[in-house]
Amino acid sequence: MAFIDCHFYSESLGVSASMNVILPQVATTQIGLASHAFGGKHPTLFLLHGLSDDHTIWMRRTSIERYASALGIAVVMPAVNRSFYADMASGPKYWQFISEELPALARSFFPLAEERELNYVAGLSMGGYGALKMALSHPNQYAAAASLSGAVDIVGRATAFPNDFQLIFGDAATIKDSPNDLFYLADQLVASNQVRPQLYQCCGTEDFLYEDNIRFRDYCHAQGLQITYDEEPATHEWGYWDRKIQTVLDWLPLPTKA
């Protein structure tokens, strides 16, 4: 794999932004690393970070480069600070950045596929929320989305982060039944005639977000929205996410290797 620490200017944010990118490379003499690459532009996973993290965290806490290398998939890991992947009421337009500007810029910099069936999004905690938000809001752009220990019910998280939520959403009471509410987005997708992305959700049974995840899973099923769900005894920690990102990569509907 090639690893790029990429810094660039964002029109949406009005400042320089950052992302880590790993790109497939077939290397026949490299020791200890399986490699693969598809012909043409690369299938791409947009991999999102959590509330206290940044664009470097997946590379620092997991072996994502090693896992992706064998599959021939590019991975784009952007930084969005503590934004909950939203256009902030008192701050930059992070939703515009992550949902519109970043994919276009990444494809202009690197040989990344544009086709829906070759694009996927995943994340942990706040990033799990962001991944589902991206796929439910833009089902025509992503074939699959995965949430690992996701903050899937942010209506219920407002009291946990009152200062953040005031800056991000203004009045937290406006989140429910808005485009920032995953339950609302699930309703909108079910009611539409749009193609539905494959969805994956996992959470540890000892995680403080476990009940929220069960509630979202059950709501999706009740609305007729299929979602693959997985749980095991675990807390909100990187050992679990390192294991589960491997599950996610195996689950992704990647093209058949040539």
Quick structural gist:
The protein has helices at 57-61, 64-71, 94-109, 126-137, 162-169, 182-191, 210-222, 238-251; strands spanning 2-10, 15-23, 44-48, 74-78, 119-124, 144-148, 198-204, 228-232. The mean pLDDT is 96.
List the helices and strands and how they pair.
Blueprint: E1 2-10, E2 15-23, E3 44-48, H1 57-61, H2 64-71, E4 74-78, H3 94-109, E5 119-124, H4 126-137, E6 144-148, H5 162-169, H6 182-191, E7 198-204, H7 210-222, E8 228-232, H8 238-251
Parallel strand pairs: 3-4, 3-5, 5-6, 6-7, 7-8
Antiparallel strand pairs: 1-2, 2-4
CATH architecture, please? 3-Layer(aba) Sandwich
Strand order of the largest sheet: 1-2-4-3-5-6-7-8
- If helices are DSSP runs of H or I spanning 4 or more residues, what is the number of helices? 8
Uncertain residue ranges:
none
- Indicate the CATH topology: Rossmann fold
CATH homologous superfamily classification: Alpha/Beta hydrolase fold, catalytic domain
Order of helices and strands: EEEHHEHEHEHHEHEH
Number of strands: 8
Shape: globular
Query: What structural category arises from helix and sheet content?
Result: alpha/beta
Major pleated sheet: 8 strands, mixed
**What is the total number of structural domains?**
1
End-to-end distance: 18 Å
How much helix is in the residues?
25-40%
The CATH class assignment is Alpha Beta
Strand content: 15-25%
**What's the overall average pLDDT, rounded?**
96
Q: What gyration radius follows from the Cα positions, in whole Å?
A: 17 Å
